[in-house]
TrEMBL record:
Gene3D superfamilies: 3.40.1190.20
Coiled coil segments of this chain: none
GO cellular component: cytosol
GO-annotated molecular function: kinase activity
Name by which UniProt lists this protein: Kinase
Length: 298
């Protein structure tokens, strides 16, 4: 863990917060199987995961999300607050249930998942209302699951004009909506190679070419992963760094991308050189995958 020097400024995490319910099957899963394993319920969602991991790294983090007006939402807020996340601007949506994410994983990784995001969908651009005033934030982390209208509105907010906007990729199918953010001068994209290819509209052979293509498209910087193959960091000055992830099996894959992004942001805030920051982030992600490391600790 990196201990980032205390600061009055913080990272604002905008996007999903919900309950994760993850079933870890002990054996390879086949459609229709009923397998032994274990089921874990824990706080989740891209924005909340990132806020929790940033706090784990010693970085002040504030959550901006939409929850239902139910007991599940109140419990989620209480847990996030107890773990040090600032939750003063969280929206509660009347008549909506707090979101949830249900996934099945086996020794090979993710088998299937379903996400209930009704509260976030109902909030729409109102999610950003608390950001209309002045905010003292060093970086903003945005969940790439948000729809294009919300992403575009976030990029145009005067309160975020001077902040670095770090975007977490959601999936290849949702990558095109990130074009709504390309006009921001301090945009940093955190994507996998498939997401980068869809955003760029081109086949990209590896993370090196993908990171360079994202900067050519208008990003100020980009971190691109490619599974077990080397990951790459590039910026608009032409800097390019690569590092290979540690070799491992994949007993826990849910939240791995969030773990990597939070560790990389913390490393950069601490002033690590680009290659060292990338290596640090990959090592912390390997811990998460290998051991089921969690940020949800007192």
């Amino acid at each position: 863990m990196i201990n980032v020097a205390p600061s009055g400024r913080r990272v604002l995490c905008i996007g999903a917060a919900h309950w994760d319910v993850i079933g870890h099957a002990a054996d390879p899963a086949v459609r229709g199987d009923d397998l032994p394993g274990r089921v874990v319920r824990a706080p989740g969602g891209v924005a909340l995961n990132l806020a929790l991991w940033l706090r784990h790294e010693g970085v002040a983090a504030e959550l901006l999300t939409a929850l239902g007006d139910d007991a599940a939402g109140q419990e989620l807020l209480a847990q996030a607050s107890a773990l040090g996340v600032i939750c003063d601007r969280v929206l509660r949506i009347p008549g909506q249930a707090t979101g949830s994410y249900v996934a099945i994983e086996d020794p090979s990784g993710l088998v299937a998942a379903v996400a209930d995001t009704a509260a976030m969908d109902a909030a729409g651009v109102a999610l950003l209302e608390p950001v209309r005033g002045d905010l003292d934030v060093r970086r903003v982390v945005i969940d790439g699951n948000l729809d294009a209208a919300v992403l575009g509105a976030a990029a145009a907010l005067p309160a975020l004009a001077d902040a670095e906007i770090c975007v977490a990729g959601a999936s290849p199918a949702k990558a095109a909506r990130l074009r709504a953010l390309l006009g921001h001068p301090r945009l940093v994209l955190h994507l996998n190679r498939a997401e980068a290819a869809n955003l760029c509209g081109a086949e990209l052979a590896d993370s090196h070419s993908a990171a360079g293509a994202l900067c050519a498209l208008g990003a100020a910087a980009a971190l691109v992963t490619d599974g077990a193959r080397p990951a790459a960091w590039a910026d608009a000055t032409g800097l390019m760094e690569e590092a290979t992830p540690p070799a491992l099996r994949a007993p826990r894959v849910t939240g791995a991308g969030d773990r990597l992004m939070a560790a990389h942001i913390a490393a950069r805030l601490q002033g690590l050189e680009p290659r060292a920051a990338l290596t640090y982030a990959l090592d912390r992600t390997a811990d998460h995958i290998r051991h089921g490391e969690t940020a949800c600790i007192p």
